[in-house]
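Hey, I'm writing a tutorial for new members on how sequence and structure tokens pair up, and I'd like a real worked example in the thread rather than a made-up one. If someone can provide the structure for the chain below, I'll link this post from the tutorial.
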Amino acid sequence: MTTRLEQRLSRLEKRVEAIHQMVYTLLQMQQAAPPAEEPETEAEAIPGELAEAAVAEVAALELLDPLDIQYELALNWANEGRNQQPPQDLSEFDLAGRNLRGADLKDATLERASLARADLTGARLQRANLSEADLSRAQLARADLSRAQLQRADLTFAHLVYAKLTGAGLRYAVLTRANLSGANLSGADFGGAQMHRANLARANLRDAQVHRRQLATASTLDGATMPDGRLYDGDPEPWK
């Protein structure tokens, strides 16, 4: 199944081919025309002008970077994407290292997208589908990921300080060495998630679906609110 990006690139390629053919035809017309020092009318100058304009358009199209197109489509979603019919599908987009600070990506479909090292500080990602996305080393401080789908997402070394993940689906996600200090994780589902060396200091885990063995692998739980509502007292087990 072709993605929207592949369809867009296919249309661009066809446009470039059509322009190349037009340039070739216009040049053939120029070569076939009798030589003249100056065109007698403006109409006679049109083929040459069209050729120059077509060449310029080809050059502009050939300079387009597919990754830049993806970034522009993501920004377009942040501005007005959810109003498009049908909404833009951002699945498998490569947005690694991009600046998406404060971007409004609520309800966006970003399955298997690459957002490694992306700056999503303060981004609004409520209900976004980020299943299997690469968010390793992403900056997500104070981002709102309430009810976001993050199943099997890679959040290794992700910076999620004071992020909001209430009700988020994190089953089998990789949170190795992620910084979740002060994050609101209430009601989140961590079934099968890897939390080795994750920083959960002052995190709110009230009603979260997480096993004591998972929490035992975290680097710290100091000041955290446990799933049963009590403050962490050095032992993650009693609530089970």
